[in-house]
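This part of the workshop introduces the protein records we will be handling. A learned vocabulary of local backbone shapes supplies the integers on the structure line. Getting from the letters to the tokens is the skill we practise here. As an example, a complete record with its sequence and its structure tokens follows.
=====
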Amino acid sequence: MAVLAIIHVGLAAAWVGGMAYSLFVVQPKLKKYFGDDRDGREALTAVIASGNRWKVIGLIAAIAVSGVFLLLLNHNHWQLHMVKGILLLVATGIFWYVSWRHWPQRVFATAAELPGLQRRLIRLATAMLGLAGTAFTLGVVAVHL
């Protein structure tokens, strides 16, 4: 059970950490580096994001599956874990929207549409980070109750 818990926490920390790094380090640096060159910024953002969709889906699935196994092994504080699961589902829904709706819109966006789409991505990424971070925090709380 300890190994499974370490895997679960490690995967969740990787997801939260990756989102936080992207949101608070990569995105601001891209904006600063490219300045008014929105096309250059968009091109590099697309290169960075390319090919990550299925990796993140695998990560989310592994977090969910390991969480279910942990809950089957230990039912204590199942209500907190149920909330964690709901938060994961909502974050996954946002990820789906970003991957299959938002990115295609950005690829075909006009210059006038792009700033609004960039702002929307920051809001969506912030929401995903908040949801995943809250789920992570609830997991820590559940262990210490």
Remarks:
- The chain has a mean pLDDT of 93.
- The first helix runs from residue 2 to 34.
